[in-house]
Amino acid sequence: MKKIQLLNLKEGAEINFSANTQNHTNEESDHYMKQTVKASVFEDLFSNKEYLLQLYQALHPEDTTVLESDLEYVTLQQVMANNPYNDLGFKVGSRLMILVEAQSTWTENIIVRCIMYLAQTWKDYFISSKQSVYASTKLEFPEPELYVLYTGSKTISKTEISLSEEFFAGKPIAIDAKVKVLITGKNNDIITQYVLFTKVIDEQRNLYKNNTQTAITETIRICKDKNILKEYLENHEKEVIDIMVTLYSQEEVLRDYVTSEKFTSEVKGIVELSQELGRSFADTVSYVAKKCNVSKDIAERKVNSFWN
Question: For the whole model, what pTM was predicted?
Fold first, then answer.
């Protein structure tokens, strides 16, 4: 096993920060940082089969015979290029598990996202297993299970959402999909611990808005003390710190962009053209978010500043 040199935060070891990553107070970049840190730790955590197995066991506690070697990753990143960090697909025997993390913003559109993943994954599976949809032989493929893990602050009462219910008023439709909603897990399982980890990130980020180093060290310290992903943080502490430091640097880039004259000019031009063409406010916000690669919250505030 590859040895990892850990940073012992409790003994006062310092994290190396560049000068431009320590004092960020911009509301928009703050939102971005919380979102991306959670997403990347999600990816790093479950890229380890030890924790992936714990995830599977939390979802299927009745299946006690599955081993790490039975888990097979399914690459989903290329399906939705703008969201590569917080989606997970893996195959266990005859099951195909797709788990999507919804962070700050809750949207029922995540059902469609899951369906897109599923369709692409099945397509790839048919190719790899040398099956043809045009052949007379009946296709064989894994049974899908769709999950969304919500780690935002909004209260979600639903434990399951479906394409039919959310988009077509419950009418029978040709293709339906049901997605189980995970808000927390049970008995301090890996799902519970990950959700608690995201809450600690948010709390420390809000508490130490002007001190990046403290926000990071306190997040890790608190989680270790409270047995939240403790083993993962102890064994992968350096990677977690690197993730956070890197994403703080990305935060700085985003902060500079969303406050730049270039971004302001781009949005102003888009708004003027949208109004000439009769495009709605909502459609304009969506277009700005996609074109400028910013969150809808940022896009909405900026579009609103120019909307007459």
Answer: 0.71
